[in-house]
Amino acid sequence: xxxxxxxxxxxxxxxxxxxxxxxxxEGKTDEEILSMIVRKTDLTENETLTRLRLILxxxxxxxxxxxxxxxxxxxxxxxxxxxxxLLTIARNSTFDVKRAMELLLIECSLCNGRFPYTxxxxxNFCACKFCDGCMVHWxxxxxxxxxxxxxxxxxxxxxxxxHSEDAATHYQQLxxxxxxxxxxxxxxxxxxxxxxxxxxxxxxxxxxxxxxxxVYQGHLSKKIRCPFCGKYMCYSCKRQWRDQHDGIxxxxxxxxxxxxxxxxxxxxQLDSIIExxxxxxxxxxxxxxxxxxxxxxxxxxxxxxxxxxxxxxxVVHGRATSQCTDQCKGRGHHAHxxxxxxxxxxxYDSEDLENLLVMHDIRFEHPLHPPDSTHCVVCNADIAxxxxxxxxxxxxxxxxxxxxxxxxxxxxxxxxxxxxTWINQHTNVDFPNDNDSLPKFIKDKFPLx
Length: 449
Known about the structure:
two-stranded antiparallel ribbon, 17 helices
């Protein structure tokens, strides 16, 4: 028996080594040698032979049984799989044929295509699986168009990114995926994470002069300097700094401004207009102006947090949050609004909303215009005198905001069909048929927080 036969026939021998050495022996073809290694397994394609030969040369520690598993993988796998990928699949299957075949064709949870284990991505907090193509598409869309709080799994929305520890773990896992799959977006990815961390820092401030955001890192005092424009502001009241603020509290400083600053009243009027037409992001506290059209959701221009314009709760798109119940399934774009959220109460008649305020002895007038103004302070439209300086549309919006501000329960003026609709949307409990007892039933079972 020559050396080649001894290597191939020896029990428990190193088959990869035997194969690599025998490839150069005269009188033996690759097919003959390979057939001996895999115990006469039928072999018909030269491409299969070449790939298996490469695998055996890369991993010289394969046993005979392992070689058989690898050989079956080579026969069944698509041609574009690399040697390293085939070996990875084989090792992760612990060289079990059935498991190896399963890892060769895994279904993508998004596109339902089947891909090898080495081209499937998973996330830490769920069992969803994504092919590289779908993961690239999702990462690109999320990084370019969404805030970091919307980077949860696109299918099951796990984890809840309002939990800082889960969020940190999730972002850490995304980092190498972004580097590998969408490297050109990595700078945007890291910048958004940095901005999000800054917004959550208690020392984060928006400059009262240039409106740039920054984390103040100097010695803590009332007077702080913006690193962008170099001007000073108050750390506590966030107003532009003046010498008159030295040594006095913020309330006393505001009183001084009211009495001595000719620009103060004008600024107060501007602040009132911003109060009417603007909104503050509940996530980063940035304040920005809205257009005149009411919308169910608003996206912050700074941190891209999407929230309800009325009550400030996060708006979600067909995904679950920690507050979600079975009633949320299939609702798509939704938030967990309280029933006095302005987005909901704006659908009621103005007369009903006014009656609710009267029931609680609450009235209002617009701070800039007397009740007999003839033009809306927001849109300049002609108005009726009783509407407090606002047109009918903006008067109704104001009513809704006042109701929400005082946490009044609109169930007192809701009609029967509105109450029934609310119950069906938010719970499965049985409710009384008596119209008079429905409001009390709602208040007792589902009180406003």
